Please model this.
Amino acid sequence: MRAKRDPRPRLAAAACAAVVVAGAPAARAQSAFYAAAKQVAGRPGTIIRQEPLGSVAPRGASAFRILYRSTGLHGEPVAVSGVMVVPRGAAPAGGRPVVAWQHPTTGVDRPCAPSLSPSVLQTIQGLRELLQRGYVVVATDYPGLGTPGPHPYLVGLSEGRAVLDGVRAARNMPGAHAGDRFAVWGHSQGGHATLFAGLLAHDYAPELHLAGIAAAAPATELALLQKGDPDTPDSRLFSAMLMWAWSRVYGISLDGLVAPADMPALMTLARVCFEAPRDGSTQPTDKPMPAVTYRMRRSLAVTEPWPALAARNTPGAPPKDVPVFLAQGSADTTIPPQITESYRKRLCRAGNRVRMVAMPGVTHRFIARDAAPAAVEWIAARFAGKPAPDNCPETAAR
Model:
């Protein structure tokens, strides 16, 4: 996608990325590195294997592709892939803080894992600044991307656990010297995963200490995403990915939603991969979408169990003592500003301290890139123990 425009209007699958048809990475996604025993051993966060990323690592840091143990939607052990970047040099007393980055939508098929891309480190927004401050950075692929699926697309419980177990993996990485303090930072689908990690942290990973939650244009109202215009290409793409993922994760039949003759087209669209936005002005070149279409017999928004599942996977407010940073672009047509503003108000009413950064003219695709300096500064202040800023107008009424 070109850097100066965002050609994907509302409901671009929350993807904010250039379209590439899944292809060459598939062989690597099925390679030995991404394979794990059916019964994944060890505690959550156990590193199954690692390999250096070599010359792509930023100066003064070491980068690794990792496979680690997490917990699936039903409590089962699963293998999750990702990358980890560790600054060189002596670690501070108590260990290095950890920042978990959660990527936006790259697709729901196995070859769509960011760790398969040679440009994966360029897609971690704010990476250089985070490393300069001495933080270990871990970026999960989420379950079912790279590793065998299904991918729990926008399924908060599974995504959030994968984020937290990525932080645990950083603590288990030899030589990383990661401490127990961490922050989470994500964009779009990654913002959704980030918020769920914040909701789950206290109970799922009580040994860790969450300093703050930072999210750029997070997916917070899944019911509204389900109500998109079914006749638009973007909405069809989002619906195809959601139906393919949730039908497999939750065991839901698609009978009644899509005619059998249209299922091949739905499957083709569902398996499209996206190139995540990079941290600079040079972006991947647009690739054509598959020339297929399908018709919805009924809207997801009015067909159970889809609305109930949307409600279950819509994030609420994290604990009051966890501060939140939100960034939103005024030109975002995928997650419109009013949706993030509504979520901000919900957090304010719940008693969270919220720092909201509104960026005029910024699209969904580039909000994490453009907000990264402010997000990194905010995260650094949380690790430094400074009072969290709060621009909730509702604060005075609390």
Summary: The first strand starts at residue 18 and ends at 21.
